[in-house]
Design brief:
With about 130 residues, the protein is mainly alpha-helical. The protein contains four helices and no strands.
């Protein structure tokens, strides 16, 4: 695996981790405000908040896993790329599904792009072992 693709994997991990933090910190603030304005019951807002924050923490964790995998690759430490491939595939599949379900809202490229970066960084070039 060449250095540029490893760095692409690191960048993708950073994007995932940062988007997870932003999801929980800024995204919930906006969503909870809209739910409150719509007079959503407080217990429902709280329950939705738990799921929302779990999603943000999971995104942060996925980003950290991807960063560790590619950091080790950068340092020539043998490491399995399978966790990165699973995370990248999950991001792409979820992002494309949400993109279509939301009427082709380009916002969901926030999942597709880093997922593709991870997959590009994870698979060897043709003819390279």
């Amino acid at each position: 695996m060449d250095k540029a693709r490893t760095i692409l994997g690191l960048i993708a991990g950073v994007l995932m981790a940062v988007s997870g933090a932003v999801h929980s910190l800024l995204g919930w603030k906006a969503l909870s405000g809209a739910l409150t304005a719509a007079q959503t019951p407080a217990d429902l807002i709280q329950t939705l908040g738990f799921g929302w924050h779990f999603g943000g923490v999971a995104m942060l964790a996925f980003g950290c896993i991807v960063m560790v995998v590619f950091w080790k690759r950068l340092k020539a430490v043998p490491v399995s790329l399978m966790p990165a491939i699973v995370i990248g595939t999950t991001y792409v599949v979820f992002g494309l599904g949400a993109f279509v379900a939301a009427g082709f809202d380009p916002f969901f490229m926030i999942f597709v792009v880093p997922g593709l970066f991870v997959l590009i960084a994870s698979f060897p070039r043709p003819g390279v072992a």
